[in-house]
From TrEMBL:
Keywords: Cell membrane, Membrane, Transmembrane, Transmembrane helix, Transport. The lineage of its organism: Bacteria, Bacillati, Bacillota, Bacilli, Bacillales. CDD domains: TM_PBP2. Its main location: membrane. It is found in: Cell membrane. The keyword Transport applies. GO terms for biological process: transmembrane transport. Residues 65-277 form the ABC transmembrane type-1 domain. This is ABC transmembrane type-1 domain-containing protein. The keyword Cell membrane applies. It comes from Jeotgalibacillus soli.
Length: 290
């Protein structure tokens, strides 16, 4: 009995701590999403599904879904392509490859708020270094963060700069775990490098790619720091993502119940994406076993 219960007793304090830190906020979030909750309102009456009904009729909410989808799809797709290309180059054991790997990891170690502030200064229309070099090359200065057509691409560029190295780390580890025998067999059969990449390397790397895309997608949904430092959700809400609108409704307008309802919907969307990714992952595993 002691041997069976020993591991549970040892891990019980940590499990209780995790439950309190994870389950209680989730339950509280669900609770206040059905309330007219505000820190300055002592009654906080239950309103049922009124917050969710308001949410469905709120144009700013639907705009935030569109902005989030554009941001996540664009940023993660480009990061995947760049990450795979650079991982393939680094996997060739080029000279100074280790030093390049170390340097390319530096953006990950920087706080997102620092990165956002840095790009805010770099993209400044008057004294930003990007506009300085653009002017040197003969181009006009660009209002990156105040132009409605460029603000979201500016955020995407910032995210790509910081998180492409994350893709490189995972994909490079996956490439280094692939055996040389299938590639050698493909070369013997006369396959070109592109054919070997398309029909051998990428299929063998598919599970790693799914994991990398899954992790980055979930993280991209939570983007807030860069928006806060660079655009504040503007101009005219073109960078107002789901995470930003949760902050905007909940903490700026002190409508915690409505902000909680948006957060619950955001959680449901992430869970649906997670389920689809895991289903896809299981299909790859089944095909691999066959």
């Amino acid at each position: 009995m002691k041997k069976r219960m020993g591991p549970y007793l040892v891990t019980a304090p940590a499990l209780v701590f995790l439950a309190l830190m994870a389950l209680y906020p989730l339950i509280f979030l669900l609770k206040i999403s059905f309330q007219d909750y505000s820190p300055i309102n002592f009654e906080n009456p239950y309103v049922g599904f009124d917050n969710y009904a308001t949410l469905l009729a709120d144009s700013s909410f639907w705009n935030s879904i569109k902005v989030t989808a554009i941001f996540v799809v664009s940023a993660v797709s480009i990061e995947l392509v760049l990450g795979l290309a650079l991982a393939l180059i680094l996997n060739q054991k080029i000279k100074a490859g280790k030093m390049f790997q170390t340097l390319i990891m530096l953006p990950i170690f920087m706080a997102p708020t620092v990165v956002g502030l840095m790009f805010r200064f770099m993209m400044n229309e008057q004294y930003g270094v990007i506009n300085y070099f653009a002017e040197v090359l003969g181009f006009d200065r660009t209002a990156w963060l105040s132009d409605p057509t460029l603000a979201l691409p500016a955020l995407i560029i910032t995210d790509i700069w910081q998180w492409t190295p994350f893709m490189i780390i995972i994909l490079l580890a996956g490439l280094q775990g692939i055996s040389d025998e299938p590639l050698e067999a493909a070369q013997i059969d006369g396959a070109t490098k592109w054919q070997a990449l398309r029909y051998v390397t990428i299929p063998m790397l598919s599970q790693v790619i799914i994991i990398a895309v899954l992790l980055r997608t979930i993280d991209a949904f939570r983007l807030y720091d860069s928006i806060f430092m660079m655009t504040q959700g503007g101009p005219v809400n073109v960078t107002s993502t789901l995470s930003w609108i949760v902050f905007d409704k909940g903490f700026r307008f002190l409508d915690f119940g409505y902000g909680a309802a948006i957060a619950v919907v955001m959680l449901i969307i992430v869970l649906i994406l997670l389920t689809l990714f895991l289903k896809r992952f299981s299909l790859f595993e089944e095909s691999g076993e066959k």
